[in-house]
Amino acid sequence: MIEASNVSVSIGRKPIVADIEFAVAPGEFAAIVGPNGSGKTTFLRALSGELACTGTIKINGRDIAAMKSWEAASVRAVLPQATALSFPYTVREIVRLGVLGGRSRAASASSDDLPEKALARVDLGGFAGRLYQELSGGEQQRVQLARVLCQVWLPVLDGVPRYLLLDEPISSLDIKHQLIIMNIARDFAHEGGGVVAILHDLNLTAMFADRIAVMQRGRLAAAGTPRAVLTDRLVSDVFDCALRVDTLPPAGMPFLLPQAAG
Amino acid sequence: MAYDIMDGVIGRRRRASLDGDRTALARLVIAGLVLALALTVLFSLDSGASDASGWQFLLDAAFPSFDSTLSMRDRVIMIDIRLPRVMLGVLVGASLAVSGAVMQGLFRNPLADPGLIGISAGSSLAAVAVIVLGATVLAPVILVFGSFALPIAAFFGGLATTLLLYRISTRQGRTSVATMLLAGIALAAMAMAFTGLLIFAADDRQLRDLTFWSLGSLSGATWQKIGAVAPIMLLALVATPFLARGLNALALGEATASHLGIPVQRLKYVAIIAVAAATGASVAVSGGIGFVGIVVPHLLRLVIGPDNRFLLPASALLGASLLLLADAVSRTIVAPAELPIGIVTAAAGAPFFLWILLGKRGVLDL
After folding, report:
1. What's the ipTM?
2. Contact at 8 Å (CB) between A76 and A156?
3. CATH number of the domain at A2-81+158-260, please?
4. Residue A48 contacts B, CB cutoff 8 Å
């Protein structure tokens, strides 16, 4: 269980996030949605222990402020929005950093082929020998996800649930790979881990997330199941845009929903 | 132009092996570098202004029971001149190259170097102050430390600059690497201004000392000096392998490295102290020797990739070999006079570096 209670974050004197109550239980896929600049990433950085905050954040009952970085690394992995790399590492070398990070080694006797497996999982089989910096943005994003998966390869280790914190994991991906990644996240939750993901695609969010937290101007505007949260009034208000849920476009206009993928 | 770029890219792909695992290649290269260093040491012992034979000396050392053909004079040349000089070359070369590699990993920038962020400039300022003000203001320092005043001053100059830099760029326990880089450039400029002021005030004899020292040289090698700096350098060199994994993770950024379980703040602290110690000690005994810290790690990254677990030991080995070769050139090319080694490393290193860059122009920003 990750529990955040009464969490506020200020950067300098400016309050970015205020009074957030949030929890994700093992087995759950929680999505955070909200307009740009609503504090989603800041809140996720607080959850990961990267930013100091007031209030308390606990992972599996332990306060993250009191955890050493290697202790935190063994129970949760974090995918940042973008990762700039300074030296010409190969894809395998990047993914292997994940193996060295968490307790993947304890998890699997065959940790040597873990990078291969993780790459195949994100549909990058055969990419291990490529240089990271030569890949497209979407491919780089999937390499980073493979690295993150290596760190917490087993959703539950020694009876302790582990967590994925993903900041816009599908923002640069085509629809096929968006679905692949969302399925990975859902499977991770179904196998007993917990997932927190910042998402912008409300359709995919509705399709995969167990619960949605909606953020607006640094505060929690709503939280609950997709059915309960995604209402005309709430999305119109939060995104400042007249929106209607469950409404088809005018006849004759093509539209594509991920739900229709076979 | 487009063709050039493609060519560069394909060339790189060929080098990174098919499964992206360069571990075996790196091990092979390191084994080769060990051999190369052994040969270079032999060659350095054997070459010099006198015709004393390094081979004979080693044979004697290995089989003391044989009748030696080595004269007393040659034996003295070996033990008191060439051997300490070779050892100093190995230590300084390894320290400079490893310091460069660690700094580059820390700053996530292939151009970072102790010379760039002011550590060398701080060392130099202190050393120049001792040379110029030794007879007046700093006379007590000379009185206390005697001939060690200069190396000690250079060492503490480098350390003081580093600590100052660390204080400037650390707020609430977090060190900003970007601030440190910029502040380092400012501190280097300031140190150079003061150094310039001292040079301006120096007399002719002091100027000769200054010139020779600032161009770098291993000619002052004695067992005493080695005894003074070797422990510092060895401590720093021994610390660096423990940094390798953390520096690899740091390539993804500080936040990500921390998420991977690396204690980033402690890593930065240890890396900075190790670099300051190794650089300060190097400048202290050999003056300003440029280019080793940038060229050596860069060359190795092209061959074995940027994995610091292999890059750091390989840098130490190649740095030591290259500095020994440069020193062999510097003491034989105008024998019996001696060229400052900094001239040799810059004259050979700079064009070579440019040549590599031109060949890689298409993929430079990769």
Report:
1. 0.90
2. no
3. 3.40.50.300
4. yes
